[in-house]
Design a protein that fits this description.
This protein is α+β, with helices and mostly antiparallel strands. It has 2 domains: 144 residues, Creatinase/prolidase N-terminal domain (Creatine Amidinohydrolase, Chain A, domain 1, 3-Layer(aba) Sandwich); 279 residues, Alpha-Beta Complex (Creatine Amidinohydrolase), CATH 3.90.230. Helices cover 34% and strands 15% of the residues. It is built from 12 helices and 17 strands. The strands form 6 sheets. A 5-stranded mixed β-sheet has the order 4-3-2-1-5, covered by helices on one side. Strands 6-7-10 form a 3-stranded antiparallel β-sheet. It has a 3-stranded antiparallel β-sheet with strand order 13-16-17. Strand 8 and strand 9 form a beta hairpin. Helix 1 packs antiparallel against helix 3 and helix 4 crosses helix 12. The longest helix has 26 residues. It binds manganese (II) ion (MN).
Length: 440
């Protein structure tokens, strides 16, 4: 894998330089300055929160644990890395940079955070400095020019072959964890036990994961962002929903699977239908496809699944129109993914900004752009039995067209979500998740 990354990295860097050249020219700036970030200390404490690197920094180089370091790029010049390697016997000191990317940078090592100032451009007004407020170092204060950020964020949706290679690795790590988690569920483990099995198989601690894992048994599958971990297993294990990802050099995978216990055949049948529907949506991840249209299409297909399984008696069209499908599928079909699990610029109209509104009646959709080759998106349809939403539905006129006895029986399973990470290409989509599961 390292050889592949080494071969792909120069083109990745060339792409970033080209994008940055244009972004800086648009904003009238000479230089891009990106602090990696500084650790944030907890209130009235001497302990820091886990360090999360500035995504604009890790876009350029695979360093996710370099607090106090800086990237400086002036068009036409080699990019410069100011690398903080403190003299410190309290902590593990970051190793000097090494690997396939170092030859592409002028690297300066500094020993104290403030020493970076001598290496940063003096004319800060000519710099686009992208970072959060507490990265400020004397006169070098992030100005985050919108015109520069808009350009970079819009194009960040289109991954380079180097980035795709890292996302394949993030998917491989994640699916290893998912396989272990399924085995732990089958063995009767608690949510906490399953989570431990997941972390061990992935080889990452919680703070290294791209997002907080959702590990829900039985009814807990109905809580969309369930992040408790019950320490004891329920008396009866009926169903298991796991939404968990992994990281590779700062790139994320985001994977959801739902399982039924061996004696929950009716729930397994519904899982199989959602799974088939999900594969159909993945097949539509094509260059030129409108993502919001795909989301609305998913509502119609899932309403068809609800009808097929006898939960509803109305047509899929009227189920979508009357809001019935939204009661069972109350979130968006998916989102862009990359260095952040929910990637930036999901609504951005063009490289110069603007917003593409969500379709009416779909307030939780996170991506309204048209898909294009190089984009990576999640496809994550679901069907849930959520008490709050079902109670609202029961008060509507359409309630008479719903088989409540069947709906009530399925509350014990919580819900279903199946989520894959998919690369849009000029031809067939690449399913990072299914490919990784298949290779296990
Ligand atoms: Mn997701």
């Amino acid at each position: 894998m390292t050889d592949t990354l080494a071969a792909l990295y120069p083109q990745h860097l060339a792409t970033l330089r080209e994008r940055t050249d244009t972004a800086l020219a648009r904003g009238g700036f000479d230089t891009l300055v990106v602090p990696a970030g500084r650790p944030i200390t907890k209130f009235l404490d001497d302990q820091d929160y886990p360090f999360i690197v500035n995504p604009h920094f890790k876009h350029w180089l695979p360093l996710t644990d370099a607090p106090g370091s800086w990237l400086v790029y002036t068009p036409g010049n080699k990019p410069k890395l100011i690398f903080l390697q403190p003299r410190d016997y309290w902590h593990v000191v970051p190793e000097a940079p090494s690997g396939y990317w170092v030859d592409h940078f002028d690297i300066v090592i500094v020993r104290k955070p403030a020493d970076a100032i001598a290496e940063l451009p003096a004319a800060t007004a000519r710099c686009a400095i992208i970072g959060d407020d507490h990265c400020s170092l004397q006169d070098v204060r992030p100005n985050n020019p919108q015109v520069v950020i808009d350009h970079l964020h819009y194009h960040r949706a289109y991954k380079t072959p180097y980035e795709l290679e890292l996302m394949r690795e993030a998917s491989r790590r994640g699916t290893r964890g998912h396989r272990a988690a399924e085995q732990a569920f089958r063995a009767g483990e608690s949510e906490f036990g399953i989570h431990m099995a997941y972390l061990k198989a992935v080889g990452q601690i919680d703070a290294e994961l791209p997002y907080a894992s959702i590990v829900g048994l039985n009814e807990h599958g109905a809580v969309l962002h369930y992040t408790n971990f019950d320490r004891s297993a329920p008396a009866a294990l009926r169903s298991f929903l796991i939404d968990a990802g992994a990281s590779a050099s700062g790139y994320a995978s985001d994977i959801t699977r739902t399982y039924a216990s061996a004696d929950a055949g009716e729930f397994q049948a519904l899982i199989d239908s959602v799974d088939a529907a999900e594969r159909g949506f993945v097949a539509k991840v094509r260059h030129g496809q409108s993502y919001p249209d795909l989301h609305v299409h998913a509502h119609h297909v899932l309403a068809g699944v609800l009808r097929e399984h006898g939960f509803i008696r109305m047509s899929p069209e009227s189920a979508v129109e009357s809001g019935v499908s939204a009661a069972f599928f109350p979130h968006g079909l998916g989102h862009g993914i990359g260095m952040q699990v929910h990637d930036v610029a999901g609504f951005q109209a063009s490289e110069t900004g603007g917003t593409i509104a969500r379709p009416e009646g779909h307030p939780y959709l996170r991506l309204t752009r048209e898909l294009g080759a190089g984009m990576v998106v999640t496809i994550e349809p679901g069907i849930y039995f959520i008490d709050m939403l079902l109670a609202e539905l029961k008060n509507k006129p359409v309630a008479s067209d719903i088989d409540w006895a069947k709906v009530d029986r399925f509350r014990q399973y919580g819900g279903i979500r199946i989520e894959d990470d998919v690369v849009c290409t000029t031809g067939e989509p690449e399913n990072l998740t299914r490919d990784a599961f298949a290779a296990l």
